[in-house]
Amino acid sequence: xxxxxxxxxxxxxxxxxxxxxxxxxxxxxxxxxxxxxxxxxxxxxxxxxxxxxxxxxxxxxxxxxxxxxxxxxxxxxxxxxxxxxxxxxxxxxxxxxxxxxxxxxxxxxxxxxxxxxxxxxxxxxxxxxxxxxxxxxxx
Length: 139
Prior knowledge:
- By secondary structure, this protein is an alpha/beta fold.
- The chain has one domain: 3-Layer(aba) Sandwich (Rossmann fold), CATH 3.40.50.1010.
- Helix content is 58%, strand content 7%.
- It has helices at 7-14, 23-37, 45-52, 58-68, 78-93, 100-112, 122-130; strands at residues 3-5, 41-42, 115-117, 133-134.
- A 4-stranded parallel beta sheet has the order 2-1-3-4.
């Protein structure tokens, strides 16, 4: 199964020094490397934008953009945006808040039978209302 890798995972791998990661975080980065090697990683434009946002220097931005060029953006279509709005409304009705990008991630995953690899606990709540598959880390 293909996997949408959320910004939280990319940030561990690309924006933090390896020696600053705890054991669990290191394991997550190795899991990402394995998914990349298996050609299972899905990138979408909004995640790319989140990863590149907040970079302090042009040099760092160019380096990060260069690394991410290895991953083309999976196309997002009208049905994905419509489903994202449905998910947003469904969750909001029950008091679950989330960003529009998070619900778009859920929608693309749902519509294409992808799983979502994230450390963002909000996706656990979303999965109760959207039937998305969360990527299960290997033990």
